[in-house]
Amino acid sequence: MGDIHRTEVDGIEVTWRIDRTVRIGIVEVRNVSGDRIVAVFGSGRCLDLVQARGRFPKFEKVWDAVRHEFWQSVTRGDK
Domain residues for 21? Predict the structure, then answer.
């Protein structure tokens, strides 16, 4: 499993990692402004980015930021 990454946009923080198949695995979604966990996913049950977008469409900006940071990490070889 890859390193844990955190991305925050508009008070929503997503904890994610890059898995063995070079895919985004969403671990946790948190509303940091209200210090409230929106969702947590176990290691074998992480959502990929497409699933996360479908399940939490109102967080579109943070999903876009996660995708951007993912591609930065992959192209740098940070996996």
Answer: 4-76
DSSP states of 38-53: EEE--TTS-B-HHHHH
| pTM as predicted | 0.85
How far apart are the C-alpha atoms of 34 and 46, rounded to whole Å? 23
Dihedral sign (CA 48, 51, 56, 61): positive
pLDDT digits (tens, 9 = 90+) for 52-71: 999 999 999 999 999 999 99
The number of distinct structural domains making up the chain is 1
- Among 44, 79, 47, 59, CA closest to 13: 59
